[in-house]
């Protein structure tokens, strides 16, 4: 059985593994660990949540996808929380696909509208 995220129930298998989601154990450094625990407690809406030795957080909770050792960096503690990790992955894929389509359209338009039309027709078949 894979690791699991204590905040969103993501697991290190299946769709999460395929999308490069990484899992981090809570830090040993007291200041950083307290910041992580406070962030998870606030996200869960309870002060009763307590850290267990097996708890970990996934990379989906960090802006850059990984934590930072710098206390001034926004990824020093997790800041992104949501209810459904699979929904976050789906939306991320959709954003990436739209960005790729815009980039492809830009490159094709730079080459000329005739080429763009031909590439678009080929992709629709």
TrEMBL record:
Residue ranges of domain THAP-type in the record: 1-81
Keywords recorded for this protein, A-Z: DNA-binding, Metal-binding, Zinc, Zinc-finger
Domain of life: Eukaryota
Keyword Cell inner membrane: no
MF GO annotations: DNA binding; zinc ion binding
Protein name: THAP-type domain-containing protein
Organism the protein comes from: Pinctada imbricata
Record lineage: Eukaryota, Metazoa, Spiralia, Lophotrochozoa, Mollusca
């Amino acid at each position: 059985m894979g690791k699991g995220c204590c905040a969103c129930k993501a697991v290190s298998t299946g769709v999460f593994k395929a999308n490069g989601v990484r899992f981090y154990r809570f830090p040993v450094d007291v200041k950083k660990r307290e910041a992580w625990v406070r962030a998870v407690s606030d996200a869960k809406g309870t002060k009763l949540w307590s850290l267990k030795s097996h708890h970990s957080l996934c990379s989906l909770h960090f802006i850059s996808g990984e934590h930072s050792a710098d206390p001034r960096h926004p990824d020093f503690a997790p800041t992104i929380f949501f209810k459904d990790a699979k929904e976050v992955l789906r939306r991320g894929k959709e954003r990436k696909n739209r960005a790729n389509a815009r980039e492809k359209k830009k490159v094709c338009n730079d080459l000329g509208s005739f080429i763009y039309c031909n590439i678009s027709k080929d992709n629709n078949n």
